[in-house]
Amino acid sequence: MNTPRYFALIPAAGVGTRLGATIPKQYMQLAGQPMLAHVLTTFAAASLISHVFVVVSADDGYIADLMAAAPHLQGRVTVLFHGGASRQESVLNGLQAIRQQVDEEDWILVHDAARPGLTQSLIQHLITTLGGDLVGGLLALPVVDTLKRGDQNARVAQTVERAALWAAQTPQMFRYSLLTRALILADAVTDEAGAVELLGLQPRLVEGSPRNFKVTLPHDVALAEMFLKE
Ligand SMILES: Nc1ccn([C@@H]2O[C@H](COP(=O)(O)OP(=O)(O)OP(=O)(O)O)[C@@H](O)[C@H]2O)c(=O)n1
Ligand SMILES: C[C@](O)(CO)[C@H](O)COP(=O)(O)O
After folding, report:
1. The complex's ipTM?
2. HAMAP family annotated for this entry (predicted)?
C-alpha cells in the first residue's frame, strides 16, 4: 500500500450573506490580499501537503485574477469550478472531481476559505496528531464562555453545561474514501465530522487556535486583519 498523502480541499463557493459585503467574502482584501489567498498560500507552503484543491462556484469571476496575482500558487493549487448549493455539496462535488488524482486512503484536509488565520504549525499539529488515527478528526476549541440557550424573546431559557463542549474549526481531516461515503449518505450536515459521526464513528478533537476563527459577521473583518498582521 502506498504511503498516504495529504491533500487540502478548500470550499470557497459561498457568497458571504451574513457578512453583507459587495463581493463574496472569501475575496475581500485582508492585510493586503484576498482572504482566500491567505488560505491557499498557507497550504501551498506546507511541505506535508501534496496538492491544494479549491472549490469555487461555476460562475466565479474572481479566482482567475487571484491566481494570476499569485505565481507562488502555480503548480500547487488546482481550481475546481464545482461549487454547490451548500457547503456539504461543494465539498462532495470537489471530492468527486478529484477521485482520479487521489487514492482511497489519502488524507483530505477540508478547510474553510473563511478561516484565513490558519497557520502551517496548526496544519502540522493536526497531521501529526491524526496521522495514524483510524477515523480522523478536526481542529476545535474548548468552550470557555458560559453558554445560554435563549427563548423566542431573547430571554434565558437554560444555561447549557459547557464542560466537554468544543467549538468546531477546520481543517477537518479524514481519509478520502471514508469522507466521500459519509458525505454521500449524510443529510444536511454543517461539517465533515458531522457526516462521519452519522456513520457511528467518533472523530478526534484536536485543539486549534482563536486566530483560526471563521470570518462570518461584519465585526470579524477587523479581528481577522489583526491576527493576519501579527
Ligand atoms: N454553497 C457553499 C456555501 C459555503 N461554502 C464555503 O464554506 C465555507 C464556510 O461557510 P460560511 O462561513 O457559511 O460561508 P458563506 O456560506 O459564504 O457565508 P453565509 O452563510 O453568511 O452566506 C466558506 O469558505 C464558503 O465559501 C461553499 O464552498 N459552498
Ligand atoms: C465547518 C465549520 O466551519 C465548523 O465550525 C462550520 O460548520 C461552517 O458553518 P457555515 O454555516 O457553513 O459557516
Report:
1. 0.98
2. IspD
